[in-house]
Design a protein that fits this description.
64% helix, 137 residues
Length: 137
């Protein structure tokens, strides 16, 4: 479950954006990751905790997640989650399409006091809904 936890938040920001990744998409994603990590001063220690499967509630990680979601237009400025965009990018023939759609719709109702807290609540909800296992088995 280690890497899967971080991937869940990354999936929210990227997997729905493009059905087929191109080399340019991968480069953009890498740049966005680095930009958001630098902008939010995401420490190696916090990242390591996340990679080890811990759900963290740290401002730097929460804002990093919000930054990713905002860069892919999944988290709006008003703090609402762009359910329509996320659902529209799910391959409808995939085994996980309906459970993932249900998780997105349920989790999108969670709102924090700011976008960073909202990203944390979305991240926790996606974990609770077992999204990492839905996507990666």
């Amino acid at each position: 479950m280690k890497m899967k936890l971080l991937v869940a938040v990354l999936i929210l920001s990227v997997a729905f954006v493009s059905a087929a990744f191109t080399a340019a998409d991968i480069v953009r994603f890498q740049r966005t990751l680095e930009k958001c990590r630098t902008k939010n001063d995401l420490s190696d220690e916090v990242l390591e905790r996340v990679l080890n499967g811990e759900i963290v509630d740290e401002p730097d990680f929460n804002c990093f997640a919000a930054c990713l979601l905002q860069n892919y237009e999944l988290l709006r400025e008003d703090g609402s989650f762009n359910v329509e965009l996320a659902v529209s990018k799910i391959p409808q023939d995939a085994d996980f399409a309906q459970p993932l759609t249900d998780a997105i719709k349920t989790c999108s109702a969670r709102r924090g006091t700011d976008n960073c807290k909202t990203a944390h609540l979305l991240f926790v909800c996606m974990y609770e809904k077992d999204v990492p296992n839905l996507l990666f088995g």
